[in-house]
Amino acid sequence: MTEKNDRAAIIRLFHVCKRFKDKAALADITFDVYKNDFIFIHGPSGAGKSTLLKMIYLAEPISEGQIIVGGMNLSRIPRKKIPFIRREYGIIFQDFRLIPSKTVLENVSLVLEVKGNSGKAMQRKVKGILKTVGMENKLNAYPPTLSGGEQQRVAIARAVVGEPKIILADEPTGSLDHDSADIVMDLLEKFHSHGTTIIMATHDESLFNRVNGRVIRLQEGHLKTFSENEELMQ
Amino acid sequence: MTLSVARAVKDIVKNGYLNAVAVVTIAMSILVVSSFGLFILNANDIIAAWISGIRIMAYLKANLSSEKIFETELKIKEYEGVQKADFISKEQALVFLKEKMKGQSSLLGDLAENPLPDSFEISLNPSVKDIKDIETLAKRIKSIEYVTDVEYGQVWLKRFANILNLFRVGAFGIGCVFFLASVFIIGNTIRLVLYSRREEIEIMRLVGASESFIKIPFYIEGLILGAFGGLVGLIASFLGFISISSNITSGASSSFFKIRFFPMDVSLGIILCSIFVGWLGCYLSLKQFLKKY
């Protein structure tokens, strides 16, 4: 019995399946995520990593099984409640998904605006986060004028500005050069060390050594191994 | 809300051309429909002025006793809408006729017998403003035992009223067409903006934006477009009105009636209508778009 098993899970997946028409994208996925976990979901392209994350942030419906987040069964969440669940997450994408017509400051502020925040206090908070990710000098820049690494740092700022309990990162270093990927990983580690739970989909095994995390290996939609510190648990 | 208004204004400025087309369409619609409206409003005024001057002439049977004439007068005065009934004897009528004919009065000199009947000239209360009320009153008067006929310029009045009704129906039809066209154009404008911002909307959803957070700026945009289009259309109508009314008042017709622009409440109603058009266009396109994406 490990220390983790004594704690309550903040995300639980029970026999989760995802089908696109007749094709199974994910089959029988079961695992728990605990507070302050750093979980890598690893697998080749098409293994179902992104689909799994999408189901957690409710961008894809669950075909079978259950995902429980904070005690709520995501399959039974009414459409109107979805935004409130998503506010519990910070989401980072491989392609950054920043709004090109908004400045860096506006992109990050959006997360707080949707929660009803506004004014100088909000601006101070956003500027503080942008300083943390090293983008304080690009507040009024538009995303298309930034490098990939800079855009991803803005995306990280956007993900963490709302102080989410969980960060879902879908290949956050996938489209970055080595140095930029390092910066992104440093930032994620930093937020993890402050207590944030991180679930990161990646195909890059070299990232595992950086963090004391757990690795979920997916292959063709099936959970193959679930290891901690590279030691097979189950 | 301030944030939503700011976002809406920013979007309007950003999609200037599209929004200008929507505003011009609404303004044109308002201009056309209000032109009809102004015509009907002033034609109604003319009819009202005409009606207020109308006298119903009730012609009596020949050789009635003064008791019967008095009885008829009482009956006429009992009817609602009758202000007064002046008796005109056939002798007085002949004198009036001769005065009117002046130069040709000798033609009447050889008459062996006065052919004119006794009559009542009936004035109406100012409350009587409808042609139908006059028709009803005239019918009731005609049904009095000693009255042979009534006259109140009914042929002309009916003809004018029919033309006016035709314009009313026309205005309604054209109003409906322009209403639908405006709703369609506004809806299309919003839809194009929505398509161009599809990705942005998706990102907003992913960071936890509620549907109302996404929708409200678009609604505000629709309302602003509607209000602005309505205002521009109304100003254009007013300028057109000023130009036409200055021509009319300088002509001979000015002594008979004065043309006027919409009163304040109707003007406000027109702007509210165009605001509704903006909202409706927005509502329909948002409903369709957000269901699809």
What does this entry look like structurally?
The complex is a heterodimer of chains A (234) and B (293). By secondary structure, chain A is of the alpha/beta class. In chain A, 30% of the residues lie in helices and 29% in strands. In chain A, the strands form two sheets. Chain A has a seven-stranded mixed sheet with strand order 6-7-8-3-9-10-11, sandwiched between helices. In chain A, strands 2-1-4-5 form a four-stranded antiparallel sheet, covered by helices on one side. In chain A, helix 4 packs parallel to helix 6. The two termini of chain A are 13 Å apart. Chain B has 293 residues and is of the alpha+beta class. A four-stranded antiparallel sheet of chain B has the order 2-3-1-4. The longest helix of chain B has 43 residues. At the A-B interface, helix 3 and helix 4 of A face helix 1 and helix 7 of B.
Summary, kept brief:
Chain A has 234 residues and is α/β, with parallel strands linked by helices. Chain A is 30% helix and 29% strand.
Question: What key phrases describe this protein's structure?
Answer:
heterodimer; A: 234 residues; alpha/beta; seven-stranded mixed sheet; four-stranded antiparallel sheet; 7 helices; 11 strands; 29% strand; disordered C terminus; B: 293 residues; alpha+beta; 71% helix; 8% strand
Describe the global form of chain A. globular
Strand content of chain B: 5-15%
Within the largest sheet of chain A, what's the order of strands? Answer: 6-7-8-3-9-10-11
Helix content of chain A: 25-40%
Distance between the termini of chain A: 13 Å
User: Please, what is the oligomeric state?
Assistant: heterodimer
Structural class from helices and strands of chain B?
alpha+beta
Order of helices and strands of chain A: HEEEHEEHEHHHEHEEEE
**Elements of chain B, N to C (H/E):** HHEHEHEHEHHHH
- The overall pLDDT of chain B, averaged over residues, is 84
Q: Report the mean per-residue pLDDT of chain A as an integer.
A: 88
Biggest sheet strand line-up of chain B = 2-3-1-4
